[in-house]
Design a protein that fits this description.
Shape: globular
Radius of gyration: 19 Å
Strand order of the largest sheet: 2-1-3-4-6-5-7-8
Strand content: 5-15%
Helix content: 25-40%
Number of strands: 8
CATH topology: Rossmann fold
CATH class: Alpha Beta
Order of helices and strands: HHEHEHEHHEHEHEHHEEHH
CATH superfamily: Thiamin diphosphate (ThDP)-binding fold, Pyr/PP domains
Largest sheet: 8 strands, mixed
Distance between the termini: 27 Å
Length: about 325
C-alpha cells in the first residue's frame, strides 16, 4: 500500500510511551517506526538483545511492549532466540496445534554491540539457515548501555571511553564495520539501511518490505544517542537529517541483489556539518586534526561512489 502518514499514525503503538529510554534517543522512534509497518490484525514475536532497549522497556514487573510476544535474549543471541521461536511456530502449525488464521511475524532488535560484535555469529547463522525473520539493528555506534565503549560500528576518530581522544590517539582508529554489506553477502532477499528522516516514510516502507518478504531480512537503522554522542536532546531529528545529507548514513535497499538508493541529497553536505553537532568529534576541529576530517570525507565519498555504481550496474543487468 502507498504510504499514508495520517493512516499510519492511527495504528496503535506496540511500544508504549512511559518507557525509560533517554530523552532524545533514536531507538524507541526506530522501533515504533518498524512495528507500525505490521498489519493491525497480525501477531508478532519480538526478541530483543540485552542493551538499552531491553533494560529500559521491560523492568520487572512492568513492560512497554504491547500486542507482541516479547523475549528478552542474552546479549549474543537475539537472532538465535527469534529463529528458534520461528521454527517452533512452524512445527506447531504443521502439527495442527496452532489453528489461528492470523499471521505471526518474527522480529529481532539489537544494538550495534549486540549485532555487529557479540551477536554476529548467531545473526549470521540465522540468516544462513534462511529463517523467515526480520532482524533490525538500532545502530548508535557504541556500547551505550554500559558507558559508551567503542564497538566495531563506532565511526573512525570518535571519542569513547575505550577509545579516548587525547595526546596519544585521536579516538577510535579503525574504519567502522559495514554490516549492511555483510548481510548482502548472505544472499538475503531484502536488506536495507534507514534513518529517522522526514516523516518516517523511509523506515515504514522498508520495514513493511522486510517484514512481509518471505525469508530472512535485515535492516540497519541509524539511532543517535544523546549521552554517548553529546548533543542536546531536542537535536535528534536534525542530526539524523545531517547524517543522511552528508551521506555519512546513506539510505538504500537491496532487493534480490538489486541496489536502490532511496534518497539522494540535492546538495551533498560536507561531513563537518554532521561532526560539529556532537561532542564525540570536537577534537577533530583542532587545527592539527584537519587531515582527520579529510580522511573521513574520503571514506564517505568512496562509499557513496560505490553505492551509485552498484545501483547503476545491478539495475542495468
Amino acid at each position: 500500500m502507498p504510504y499514508n502518514l495520517k493512516e499510519v499514525v492511527k495504528k496503535p503503538s506496540r511500544l508504549t510511551s512511559g518507557h525509560r529510554m533517554c530523552a532524545g534517543c533514536g531507538a524507541p522512534v526506530v522501533v515504533n517506526g518498524i512495528l507500525r509497518a505490521l498489519k493491525e490484525e497480525d501477531n508478532a514475536v519480538v526478541s530483543v538483545a540485552t542493551g538499552c532497549l531491553e533494560v529500559s522497556t521491560c523492568i520487572y514487573p512492568y513492560t512497554s511492549w504491547k500486542n507482541v510476544s516479547f523475549i528478552h535474549s542474552a546479549f549474543e543471541c537475539a537472532a538465535a532466540s527469534i529463529s528458534g521461536a520461528e521454527t517452533a511456530y512452524k512445527s506447531l502449525k504443521k502439527q495442527g496445534k496452532i489453528k489461528s488464521n492470523k499471521e505471526t511475524k518474527f522480529i529481532a532488535f539489537g544494538g550495534d554491540g549486540g549485532t555487529l560484535d557479540i551477536g554476529l555469529q548467531s545473526l549470521s547463522g540465522a540468516m544462513e539457515r534462511r529463517h523467515n525473520i526480520t532482524y533490525v539493528c538500532y545502530d548508535n555506534g557504541a556500547y551505550m548501555n554500559t558507558g559508551t565503549q567503542r564497538s566495531s560500528s563506532t565511526p573512525r576518530f570518535a571519542d569513547t571511553t575505550t577509545s579516548p581522544a587525547g595526546k596519544v590517539t585521536q579516538g577510535k582508529l579503525q574504519i567502522r564495520k559495514d554490516l549492511t554489506e555483510i548481510m548482502v553477502k548472505h544472499n538475503l532477499p531484502y536488506v536495507a539501511q534507514t534513518a529517522l528522516f522526514g516523516n518516517l516514510k523511509d523506515i515504514y516502507e522498508k520495514a513493511e518490505k522486510a517484514i512481509y518478504t518471505d525469508g530472512p531480512t535485515y535492516i540497519s537503522a541509524f539511532s543517535p544517542c544523546p549521552r554517548g554522542w553529546g548533543y542536546p536532546t531536542d537535536e535528534l531529528a536534525p542530526i539524523s537529517k545531517l547524517a543522511v545529507d552528508t551521506c555519512f548514513w546513506p539510505l538504500y535497499e537491496i532487493e534480490n541483489g538489486i541496489y536502490k538508493i532511496t534518497y539522494k541529497p540535492a546538495k551533498k553536505l560536507p561531513i563537518e556539518e554532521f561532526l560539529k553537532t556532537q561532542k564525540r568529534f570536537k577534537h577533530l576541529f583542532k587545527e592539527e586534526n584537519k587531515d582527520l576530517i579529510k580522511q573521513l570525507q574520503d571514506e564517505i565519498d568512496k562509499k557513496w561512489e560505490y553505492l551509485l555504481l552498484m545501483e547503476q550496474t545491478t539495475q542495468n543487468k
